[in-house]
Structures are given as structure tokens and as C-alpha cells.
Amino acid sequence: MLAIETDNLSKNYHEFQALNNVNLKIESGSIYGFIGLNGAGKTTTMRILLNMIKASKGNAQILGQDISHVSAEFWNQVGYLIETPHAYKNMTVKENLDIYGELRMLSKHDRRKRINELMDILQLTQYKNTLVRDLSLGNNQKIGLIKALIHHPKILLLDEPTNGLDPTGLTAVRRLILDEAKNYGTTILISSHILDEMEKMVTEIGILNHGQLILQQSRNEFEKDARKTLHLKFSSASDMQAAKIVMKYILVRESPKERKIEVPIIAEKTVNQVEQTLATNQIFPISNHVERESLEKYFLREIGEKQ
Ligand SMILES: Nc1ncnc2c1ncn2[C@@H]1O[C@H](COP(=O)(O)OP(=O)(O)OP(=O)(O)O)[C@@H](O)[C@H]1O
């Protein structure tokens, strides 16, 4: 079942077309990584999905309902963090979070429990009595994230939620997102430029390029389509040279200092072929493993090829 779907979503800002016939299909319970360069149209898409701005053409459904015809209560099922979060600057962290919980109609007991739990996961407890105006950028971002998911929404839209976070913050946010999806079946649409982080979380991928969705696929499809390389390491430089000679028909990349060779896997039989060729010639690498290209490389290749 699709939790979020758009049909030919388009948006023009005067003559500039920011979105061009975008057809998002986001499965229920998935973590959908929405990837694109600056200005690709990610925030614009999310703003339309949240009814903050109107599409110029096309429509969008969330949980099967056309978002232009839903009641105010409908939005209780949705949480979001779009760019810089807004909080009351002259109130403490705890006071702000309590207001968010109240707005989402959590009982006093439930919001105290949930706020303590979230502050603990995001390492905010020590700042609970700090005024929001005195918080760092990263901690402000965490407040925005808590606001987005305090009520366990069915749908969560996160636009660059890891802005300004340090490595411990990144790990904590990742854990929170993965737990929310796993334990509550939340459908999460997330954009970020930190593709290493995205790669650790996403179950689906959508690449937006100049307002067009140029690729949309499941994680399994990405794993299958991404380029793979066979990495071979040899005990001596002479073994490495010998391996290069017997594999002359295959384009290889070498790192002579480390006595390593990388062989692009262009067909299913490549690995077997290489291993057999080496064995026939009595050349035995000391290590041998296959690596898949990163999501970042995959993304850059996809947009490069379609520029
Ligand atoms: N209100 C506006 N008026 C005119 N142009 C706009 C407006 N909002 C966005 N744009 C333009 O639309 C395009 C898409 O912007 P958007 O913010 O959606 O991109 P993005 O993918 O979220 O980028 P980033 O990764 O930098 O956040 C950009 O070229 C931007 O300048």
C-alpha cells in the first residue's frame, strides 16, 4: 500500500519550473531517501505535501486521501521538520517540548514520559532547563526533530534533519528514525545531503534532479544496480604484476604500494572468471572481496549521466 503518492506534481515560481511532473510512490512503512543537489526541489515537494504551498499542477495523496480535501485533524497523523525549526526562544527546552506535546494532545503523563525518552536518546537532558535562544544549532535541530515525532505520527517528513549535528548526534538521530519505522510502522520521507547516513537507513530511494524524479527504486534494486568491484590483495609486488598480466583482457585499477588490484564486475561470471584465471596461473591473492559502490557515488553517477 502506498502511504504517499503524487501524480504529475509540478510547481512553477513565475517562469521557473521547480518541479516537473513528479510521481512519488512511497510504500507504507518505508524510509524513503529523497536525494538531490541544492535546488533540486526536495523542500518544495515537502511543502506541497504539507499543504504549505500549492502545486501548480498535479495532486498528492497521503494515506489515500487527497491533501487538498482533508480536515485539520488529518494532520495529527503527520509530523514534519522542514529546514530551521521554530521554537519559543525565551522558553526552556522542556517548556517548549511540553507545549508541542500538548498541541499533539498527549496527556501530561504521556508527554512527560515521551519527552524524557526523546531527550535521553538525543542527549538533550542536560539542556532541559536551557533557554532555546542559548542552544547550539545542532541542539536546536534536535528540538525540531522531537517536535516532529513526539506523537508517533504515521507519516514523518524530515527535510535535512541532521543539519548541524555532530557524529554522536547523527548516530542518535539514525537510531531514532530506525526505531520509529520499526516499532510504529511510520512512513518516513527524508532528505539529506549526508548520503553515508542515508545509506544506513533508507529502504527506498528517489533521486530528484532539476525538478524531475529521475529514479525511484527499492533498496534491493539499488543494491542490485550499484556497480561492484572485486578487490584483490597480493602478498608480493611480483604476484600483483603477474595477476595483471594474466588478466590483461579486463580493465583493472591498481594500487601498487598496497599490492591491490580492483576489478570492475561487469557480468555475473566476472568473479569466477578472475578466480579461475588466477588459480590456473598459480597466483593466489591473500584477500579477495567484493565491494558495492556507495549511495553517494551511485547518485553522482545517476545525475551525471542524466545531465
Ligand atoms: N518562493 C520561491 N520563489 C522562487 N523560487 C523558489 C522559491 N522557493 C524555492 N525556489 C526555487 O526552487 C528551486 C527548488 O528549491 P528547493 O528549496 O525545493 O530545493 P531543495 O532540493 O530543497 O534544495 P536544498 O538541498 O538546497 O535545500 C530552487 O531553484 C529555488 O531557488
From TrEMBL:
Family listed: Belongs to the ABC transporter superfamily.
Signal sequence coordinates: none
GO terms of molecular function: ATP binding; ATP hydrolysis activity
TM ranges: none
Segments forming domain ABC transporter: 4-235
Protein's UniProt name: ABC transporter ATPase
Pfam families (UniProt xref): ABC_tran
Gene3D superfamilies for the chain: P-loop containing nucleotide triphosphate hydrolases
